[in-house]
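User: Please fill in residues for this 390-position structure.
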């Protein structure tokens, strides 16, 4: 198959690495993959263009692919017009069999261009949203007029799409989120990061990785540490990441509960990211970010960390509904109870860690995801060719 991926962003954010990994595997399975993405308005080392050379794909930067198109954002209109003038001919010249879209702007752009091209290839949307596609008019318009198939990552999202849009079941598929499990980072020995962060030898370390925006609920996790300060004096919370909202979402509650020294801010880690994960005794994750599939949680599970997740979104599914981790309503009291159980029940903690790793290495495989997506691509192309009216 000859597949065009459109991605209307230039930033290196949560969803992009899983998208590129999937395309890399599909290319390895014999498909022709072209990837068109946006360019940064000014040079940046955290953009797609800075990393794309490490992937064996055919990159295309001739289209504007604006990050956001809003009716009150007149600056986006010239880019949209430019792309609509040139993309239909590009589709026909390259003879694409299918167009995969990922965000609302590239969905609209790709949908219109495909419909006015001579080839009229099918359009598939990949739903990366944390809470699935919202029941808004714009999404209903896109799914009704410009969507031949939809890929989602959880049963919950599958059900929500059905309920919100009455989208045909035969044109949807669940493809489990995946990781590149062959990465050497998953198979090497790890450096001791506890000394780097000044953690006591007897510390019980709960970890969390996130962009610390207010909606991520980090303040509840910090309050849980406060509730355990007397029961677990050796408890430490290691927070990995950063955000423009970190003062309100993290630093303010640390000061409020006087937890300086008990909550460690590790900042953004690059070369020693997996070493930092390995320094944790358990991992807590409350709300997915821009990558709705909670990649940091899945990476922690691959490393064999026992996990605590909130009963929110697809998180329970990722830990097999409690089989491979503790699932709680994430009030500070419930989180404190779960952390206390992890810290005081060593056998339970070890068992959950082993189950987390077994589940992750079995379910989060790129080759498995690629086979599901490849089969679905063929099905949608077939439906399109047969003229299914549904």
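Assistant: Residues filled in for all 390 positions:
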């Amino acid at each position: 198959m000859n597949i065009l991926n459109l991605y209307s962003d230039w930033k290196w954010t949560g969803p992009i690495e899983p998208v590129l990994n999937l395309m890399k595997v599909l290319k390895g399975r014999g498909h022709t993959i072209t990837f068109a993405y946006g360019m940064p308005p000014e040079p940046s080392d955290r953009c797609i263009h800075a990393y794309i050379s490490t992937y064996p794909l055919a990159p295309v930067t001739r289209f504007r692919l604006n990050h956001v198109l809003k009716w009150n954002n007149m600056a986006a209109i010239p880019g949209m017009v430019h792309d609509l003038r040139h993309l239909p001919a590009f589709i026909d010249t390259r003879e694409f069999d299918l167009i995969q879209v990922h965000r609302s702007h590239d969905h609209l752009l790709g949908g219109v261009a495909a419909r006015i091209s001579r080839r009229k290839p099918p359009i598939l949307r990949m739903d990366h949203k944390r809470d699935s596609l919202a029941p808004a008019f714009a999404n209903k318009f896109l799914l009704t007029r410009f969507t031949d198939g939809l890929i989602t990552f959880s049963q919950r999202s599958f059900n929500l799409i059905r309920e919100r849009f009455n989208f045909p079941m035969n044109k949807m598929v669940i493809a489990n989120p995946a990781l590149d499990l062959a990465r050497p980072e998953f198979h090497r020995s790890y450096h001791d990061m506890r000394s780097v962060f000044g953690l006591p030898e007897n510390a019980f370390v709960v970890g969390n990785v996130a962009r610390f925006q207010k909606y991520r609920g980090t303040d509840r996790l910090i309050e849980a540490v406060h509730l355990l300060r007397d029961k677990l004096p050796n408890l430490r919370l290691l927070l990995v990441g950063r955000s423009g909202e970190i003062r309100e979402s993290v630093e303010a509650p640390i000061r409020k509960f006087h937890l300086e020294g008990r909550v460690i801010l590790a900042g953004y880690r690059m070369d020693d990211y997996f070493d930092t994960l390995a320094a944790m005794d358990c991992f807590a994750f409350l709300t997915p970010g821009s990558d709705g599939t909670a990649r940091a949680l899945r990476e922690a599970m691959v490393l064999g960390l026992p996990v605590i997740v909130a009963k929110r979104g697809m998180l329970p599914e990722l830990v097999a509904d409690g089989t491979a981790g503790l699932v709680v309503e994430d009030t500070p009291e419930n989180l404190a109870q779960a952390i206390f159980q992890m810290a005081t029940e060593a056998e339970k903690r070890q068992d959950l860690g082993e189950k987390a790793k077994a589940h992750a290495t079995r379910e989060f495989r790129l080759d498995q995801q690629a086979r599901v997506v490849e089969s679905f691509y063929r099905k949608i192309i077939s439906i399109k060719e047969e003229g299914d009216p549904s």
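For context: The mean pLDDT is 93.
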